[in-house]
Amino acid sequence: MANNEDVFKKVISHAKEFGFVFPSSEIYDGLSATYDYAQNGVELKNNIKQYWWMAMVQMHENIVGLDAAIFMHPTTWKASGHVDAFNDPLIDNKDSKKRYRADVLVEDHMAKIEAKIQKDVDKGKKRFGDDFDEEQFRATNPNVLRRVAEMDKIREELKRVQEEEDLPGFKALIEDLGIVCPVSGSKNWTEVRQFNLMFGTELGSVAGDAATIYLRPETAQGIFVNYLNVQKTGRMKLPFGIAQIGKAFRNEIVARQFIFRMREFEQMEMQYFIKPGTQMKWYEYWKEERMKWHKALGLGDDNYRFHDHIKLAHYADAAADIEFKYPFGFKELEGIHSRTDFDLGGHEKESGKKLRYFDPETNASYVPYVLETSIGLDRMFLAVLSASFKEEQLEDGSERVVLNIPPALAPVKAAVLPLVKKDGLPEKAREIIDTLKFDHNCQYEEKDSIGKRYRRQDAIGTPYCITVDHQTLEDNTVTIRERDSMEQERVAIADLERIIGDRVSMKKLLV
Fold this sequence. Notes:
Number of helices: 18
Shape: globular
Number of strands: 23
Helix content: 25-40%
Strand order of the largest sheet: 3-9-10-16-13-12-11
């Protein structure tokens, strides 16, 4: 675990050193759990957005986009259940004065038991080698079976205390498990309390309850209140979807793990409107589709898994997370939720407006059900960054740090490097940049040796370096160096647009 923590620290340090993520307001000593995306970070972020938008909207005739306002009528959040039910169970350690989410403490405890099971499995693999049958081992080994039973019991009690909102029972569970504060190491806990996560603010100049509005804690409600407008103006037939990328805000008390959990973050959400009774079919469909989208990036299939929710949200009849293996363990990356008619039904009731769909096939009107896919853009960014970060020992004994970012997502697609700063090579390099910059974000660099320049480009994940040398002036060819293999090939300048275009195309991820 310490090794993974070291890797995570290096990823955070690398993100700052190479212009991906800066602490917000750093000249004023920063602001807790807020970060700014730097020059390379904003390019990577925009490319992730584009990949998602193309997969959701461009590739589906029946999914359209939306960009709703952050501020919404306050009754929106009453109808959505956020005023009454958008709470986190929090507990304080009296010695460290640190505050924790009670459910996360229990889940982290279960993760430690899971790690012990994996340790037993790894020992078995080492002992029996090729003859090892992992499935049989997990089904028969007494230690594994005991630990699985222990986890099942904890999971059952965690589900109960959450569903019944049994806060004393929650504290008792933490005490019974002997969970200690990660900072103080003590078990000196306060009671568990619920804390609403919405940021409230005043609209206009008059203070008072009537003027209180909220920064949206999710982007989904902007889609729901526009459902009928989009359906009518787009003449949409069920099933159809509305996709949106936008900022959301949660007053997280326990913001932690770099950009994984922040108070201001960005979501990529798609709400898919369907006929009631078909939700399980679409739930399975979108689980499969979304997992395909993730795995197409080539970050490692073993880094993903599904996790069914122990406690369903107040709006859901089925929910699963796609979890990603970050340096700090498997954590939620994307949620797929069957929201039933909870949202549209709530808005219909509170607004007094009919939010029905007239089905020409059955000649009936009904409130559609909704299937949601919701992914944290910042978490996706961190997944790409942490999975791409590599420290490599090269054959000549030297080392390099490289980001193996999927070429389609890389902040800079090509760096054009004149071998020397004279003899017309810089001018020729500029000509090449001028032909490529309409389609790709490119960099020109002439400072330092060619080797040092390669290393700098490796460190920001640039997939291709184009070197202009004296031969270029004679025959209009250049050397292309590929980032991951470091192999070089000689190609004609006239072919560069096609070659780079093919190799960094988003199309390769989408087909």
